[in-house]
C-alpha cells in the first residue's frame, strides 16, 4: 500500500560514492562493511537505512549514498568514519519484500503519477529502511520525496 507521509529520519551512517550503474553491488557491500562496526553506534534503533542521492539525468553518472542505522537521538560520540545526519521531508512510501525492490519502486513511481504528485528528488534524498523478518526475506520501506 502506498501513502504520503511527512517524516524525519535520524541516522548514523558511512558516506560512500560510486557509479549509479554499480549500485546493485556497491550498496550491499557498503552495508555489510558498516554492519561490522554497527554495534558501536549509540542510540541505534537496529534498523538499517540506505540514503541515496537521486540521479538527476543521463549525464549524472556518479552519486553519493549513505549506509547505516536509524537512531532514536543524536549520539554523544560517533565511531571513526561515521557521521550523523537528519533528513526530513514529505515522501511517498511503500513497504514490501526486499527481494521485490524493482517492483516496489515501479509501483511507487506509478502511484505518485496517478495521485498527481511529482517527485522532489533534485535536492532531497531517497531512503530505504530495512526491517528484519524472522525466517523470511527482510521487509523494506522505500521513501521517495514528493512536492507538497
TrEMBL record:
Every Integron-associated effector binding protein domain range: 19-146
Pfam family name, one: Cass2
Protein name: Integron-associated effector binding protein domain-containing protein
Gene3D superfamilies given in the database record: Regulatory factor, effector binding domain
Domain of life: Bacteria
Amino acid at each position: 500500500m502506498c501513502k504520503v507521509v511527512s517524516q524525519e529520519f535520524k541516522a548514523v551512517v558511512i558516506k560512500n560514492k560510486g557509479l549509479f550503474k554499480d549500485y546493485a553491488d556497491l550498496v550491499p557491500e557498503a552495508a555489510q562493511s558498516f554492519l561490522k562496526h554497527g554495534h558501536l553506534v549509540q542510540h541505534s534503533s537496529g534498523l538499517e537505512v540506505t540514503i541515496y542521492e537521486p540521479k538527476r539525468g543521463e549525464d549524472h553518472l556518479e552519486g553519493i549514498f549513505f549506509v547505516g542505522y536509524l537512531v532514536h537521538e543524536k549520539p554523544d560520540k560517533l565511531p571513526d568514519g561515521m557521521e550523523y545526519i537528519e533528513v526530513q521531508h514529505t515522501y511517498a512510501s511503500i513497504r514490501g519484500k526486499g527481494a521485490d525492490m524493482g517492483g516496489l519502486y515501479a509501483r511507487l513511481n506509478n502511484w505518485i503519477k496517478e495521485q498527481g504528485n511529482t517527485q522532489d528528488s533534485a535536492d532531497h534524498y531517497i531512503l530505504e529502511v530495512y526491517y528484519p523478518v524472522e525466517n523470511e526475506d527482510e521487509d523494506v520501506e522505500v521513501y521517495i520525496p514528493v512536492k507538497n
